[in-house]
Design brief:
Layout: E1 3-6, E2 16-22, H1 30-35, H2 39-45, E3 48-52, H3 91-106, E4 109-119, H4 121-131, E5 140-143, H5 153-163, H6 176-179, E6 190-195, H7 199-202, H8 208-218, E7 222-227, H9 234-252
Parallel strand pairs: 2-3, 2-4, 4-5, 5-6, 6-7
Antiparallel strand pairs: 1-3
Catalytic activity: S-formylglutathione + H2O = formate + glutathione + H(+)
Keywords: Cytoplasm, Hydrolase, Serine esterase
Pfam family, one: Esterase
């Protein structure tokens, strides 16, 4: 597995906290490095940024390259339970266990002091990683996340393939809107960013209002920033990534 890591200059003198970034459909670890503009903010706030790939690669599983929204580049940050995916498509465990251990072992970081954020499929990933692991991350944020994958076409396709039919599998265990209903951990505020001109918002792939309503009922704090005129692109991410890194830094530098 490939991942990117940005090490600000302060790391030569002291251990630093980490922010993990999870990318969206079709992305590799390269997109965030090349397009987000996050490096200058990581330097300013003294945080390490780690950005993994979005799926395993090079396995040559039948069908893993047939669709842009399933298989390679589309791991959906779940641990698959269905053949032939369950052996390798364990992105949730990779992100929340293996990758954290790799970073803690090999870099000058403060062990156990980390936050997580992501975009689209990666926003979904960031939310479920935080909600399923109470206390593991100091904070969580997401750009245009797939908030209720059990109810949208992207999510249903991925869950059906990786987890099996909804009637006989645990889709709710991998859906942020369902997970907030049973969240019972330390205080956690969900910081959500959404471009108002995002075509996938109009196509009901993202469904942020479902998450907001679930949070209200469950009394889980949520902030939803709607950005007028912004779409689903990296231009949108690069416009507001500094706000997100500042937000996380407030939790990580306490």
């Amino acid at each position: 597995m490939k991942f990117g890591i940005y090490l600000p200059s302060q790391i030569e003198d002291k251990k630093l906290p980490v922010i993990y970034w999870l990318s969206g459909l079709t992305c590799s670890e390269a997109n965030f490095i090349e397009k987000s503009g996050a490096q200058r903010y990581a330097q300013e706030y003294g945080v390490v940024i780690v950005n993994p790939d979005t799926s395993p690669r090079g396995l040559n599983i039948s069908g893993d390259k047939d669709n842009w929204d399933f298989g390679e580049g589309a791991g959906f940050y779940v641990d698959a339970t269905e053949e032939p995916w369950k052996k390798n498509y364990n992105m949730f465990s990779y992100v929340t266990k293996e990758l954290i251990e790799i970073i803690s072992t090999n870099f000058n970081v403060i062990e156990g002091t980390q936050s997580i954020m992501g975009h689209s499929m990666g926003g979904h990933g960031a939310l479920i990683c935080a909600l399923k692991n109470p206390g593991l991350y100091q904070s969580v944020s997401a750009f245009a996340p797939i908030c209720n994958p059990s109810k949208c076409a992207w999510g249903r396709k991925a869950f059906e393939g990786y987890l099996g039919p909804q009637e006989t599998s645990n889709w709710s265990d991998w859906d942020a809107t369902e997970l907030v209903k049973v969240y019972n951990g330390p205080p956690l505020c969900l910081f959500i960013d959404q471009g108002a001109a995002d075509k996938f918002l109009q196509e009901e792939q993202l469904l942020p209002n479902n998450l907001v309503e679930a949070c209200k009922i469950a009394k889980v704090p949520i902030i939803l920033n709607k950005r007028e005129g912004y779409d689903h692109s990296y231009f949108y991410i690069s416009s507001f990534i500094g706000e997100h890194i500042k937000h996380h830094s407030g939790y990580l530098q306490k």
